[in-house]
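Recall the central idea of this unit: under ordinary conditions, the amino acid sequence of a chain determines the structure it adopts. In this exercise we apply that idea directly, starting from the sequence alone.
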Amino acid sequence: MPAVKPENIPPLDPTAAAPFYRQIYDRFRDAIASGMLKPGDRIPSARALTKELGLARGTIETAYSLLAAEGYIQAHGQAGTVVSPNLTPRMSIASLTPQPELLRKDAVSFRPDSILPFQMGLPALDAFPRKIWARLGARCARAMQPSDMIHPPVYGLPSLRTEIARYLQVSRGINCSPSQVFVTSGYRQTMEWIGHALLKAGDRVWLEDPGYPPTREIFEYMHIEGVSVPVDGEGMVVSDAVKLAPRARAALVTPAHQSPLCMSLSLTRRLALLDWAARNKAWIIEDDYDGEYRYVSRPLPALKSLDRDGRALYAGTFSKVLFPGMRLAYLVVPEAQVERFERVTESLSAGSPGLTQTIVAAFIAEGHFARHIQRMRKLYAERRAATAAGLESVLGKYVRTDSQPGGMHLILRLRGNRSDRRLAASMREQGLYAEALTNWTTRGDGASALLLNFTNIDSRHTAENFGRRILRLM
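Accordingly, the structure predicted from this sequence is:
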């Protein structure tokens, strides 16, 4: 039975025609009618509300008497005053939320606050080592000192920056110092910092097509033009990019697994990009969002590990390898650009929560991070195979699954003249998540395909059941 705190009562208006007791009555009545206050919820005592609002107790008691007389609230002695348990609100809170049928059929959120089958961007939440995390969290919280409770360092906690640098040296072949590592609150903030530090309004940036849609929006807000560059089996076609925008100031690529088609950028293309950047004093932004998850061989070294001219920036994230709720990512910048990024960070960043950074640093330092990635790599290979087999056994006549070396999602190519946008929208209406590949292209057309995350599909049987639900929508 949750309680409404006195400080959560909206302030009263002394200039209003209605007296204070009536304003209090109206606030509670409207909250109950809208579903914000539910049957059984406890409301503040007259004494507590008197103290909070600075009014005479008789004013509060008059308002409460009206509410009780009309059946909105009941006094339960020492248990306090509650919203009448048998009351049926005239309008539930759900009715204040946009319903699926009122939303655009092709509306897609790239940060959904849900856990749905096939939801993109989510790691295997059921396999996360919560007990280890809780133990570390409790230990870090107990060890907190007053100095840990002030504003966190805007560049990131030194211990976490050190652990990230060590991890990248071993796992991704990136030789960097902790001072080159900047902790951010996520991909969007990472891109904003790069834009403010290295680019300016009117600059052009090569973007993969298809590619992650929010990237283009982020640059548009900074008045930076994204130039769509096609991809093929070897990743971004660098020769096409040079023809389209030879004087571009930067190129953003996903070399490990192209987002969303999952092919790897070939060594020839990597070297061509680095050569172009060095000759033109341009920048390469390497988005390594899930490079750890490669199933046909060992994970590839990062493109930045090949950079000898200080032109590549490396963007990583903890969202895919741990969980997105922590809102932590990181950026490795060339050594010569550290001071510039420090200035930008000091102006734009408030810092990420210190306690969360402390826990992550301990999680890495004690070996839990490396072991977790190893377990997930094995688990994801199994779940990918099971999900693909389950869906193909049911939908084989209508779809074809792309062969991919790694990543966290499947690409289901739709046979025939089926619209991926329409099917994805129908799936979301039925509680299944999907993204349409055509929403990831600048043209909005091309081959129809569904992007489906497999990390939280626990068996082939589960995939078959979901496949049957998809089949009814086709």
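The mean pLDDT is 90.
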